Amino acid sequence: MRDRVKRPRALRRLAVAATVGMFLVLIAGATVTSTGSGAGCGRSWPLCHGRALPQFTLESIIEYSHRAVTGVEGLLIVALAIGAWRGWRQRSEVRVLVPLMIGFLVLQSILGAWAAVYGQQPATMALHFGISLTAFASVMLLAVFLYEVEGFEAMRNRPVPAGLRWLIWGTLGYTYLLVYLGAYVRHTRSSLACIDWPLCNGQVWPGFSGPVGIMFAHRLAAVAGTLLVAALVVWTWRLRRTRPDLFWSAVAALGLILLQSISGGVVVLSKLQVYSTITHAGLATLLFGALSYMCYRTLPLPSERVITRPTGERASPALGTGAPQR
């Protein structure tokens, strides 16, 4: 009995460590970009300038640290995947999230290697950040599943209006494109095309030509994203008694996107100060995580879920067959 208690607890702690680790991978990647250290290891991967240990230059150490953190995170994810699969492979959430987090971590590493060997193209590097976001969200949601299984997850069976569900998922998709556009701004060196904020070179409407157009499009997209998240708060406020999980997640998302907008202004006004750009990337990651959690919470529980304990002992089918709870 004691072993049965310890193993889920240990797996949950591992899931938290993997989630934090994936966040650190994104922060390390943002640090590489912000410091211009992408070529710190030359055209060599996974080695650094053909050596197991990096040269003692700041760029090499930053780039190599990013690779090292990613390697450790890979080990955490493999351990988490094995533990979750052994314990709850009957659950559809695990059957989806485990391949997602492994697949996107591998894809993220492949794109990172491609950029190191063949050069950092703006579109490739922006896609690299977007894939990293998906990897983070999948690890985070698996941790959520492990903490909510047999408990708080039951609230997922409470009804959600179809229109709200579409709005939540649509906002997540839009935010992914918004973050991709922001990464594209950074990697095309358009971040200072507008030298002030919130105006752009003293203009309300500077147009869409050249780097100024790229930056201005990102700002307009950020305003639209903020309005979408605000709409989520308004709608979920009406459901705050039956679905407080959605309401408070929407409130968190609104706070994060407002902070991200402010940090974007700080990035411009500080002329790309390193800590401001890293903070901007970190807030984008947390925002995507909050919206991913909202999407996850709109999914009803499997119509008939059987809880398999980590020891392999089968339990009786859990309550909550998919019918809305009153």
Task: Write a structural description.
The chain is mostly helical and 326 residues long. Helices cover 68% and strands 2% of the residues. It is built from eight helices and two strands; from the N terminus they run ααααααααββ. A two-stranded antiparallel ribbon has the order 1-2. Helix 1 runs antiparallel to helix 2 and helix 4 packs across helix 8. The radius of gyration is 21 Å and the shape is flat. The N terminus and C terminus are likely disordered.
Key traits:
mainly alpha, two-stranded antiparallel ribbon, disordered N terminus, 2 strands, single chain, 326 residues
For the secondary structure, the number of strands is: 2
What count of helical segments does DSSP give?
8
- Proportion of strand residues: under 5%
Mean pLDDT figure: 86
The run of helices and strands is: HHHHHHHHEE
Structural category is: mainly alpha
Major sheet summary line: 2 strands, antiparallel
Record the strand order, biggest sheet.
1-2
**Radius of gyration, CA atoms, in whole angstroms:** 21 Å
Shape: flat
User: Assembly type of the shown chains?
Assistant: single chain
Low-pLDDT runs of 5+ residues are 1-5, 306-326
End-to-end gap: 34 Å
Q: Helical amount among residues, as a percent range?
A: 55-70%
Compact description:
The chain has 326 residues and is mainly alpha-helical.
Show the helix and strand layout.
Layout: H1 2-34, H2 58-88, H3 92-118, H4 122-148, H5 162-187, H6 210-237, H7 244-269, H8 274-297, E1 306-308, E2 314-317
Antiparallel strand pairs: 1-2
Helix pairs in contact: 1-2, 1-4, 1-8, 2-3, 3-4, 4-5, 4-8, 5-6, 5-8, 6-7, 7-8
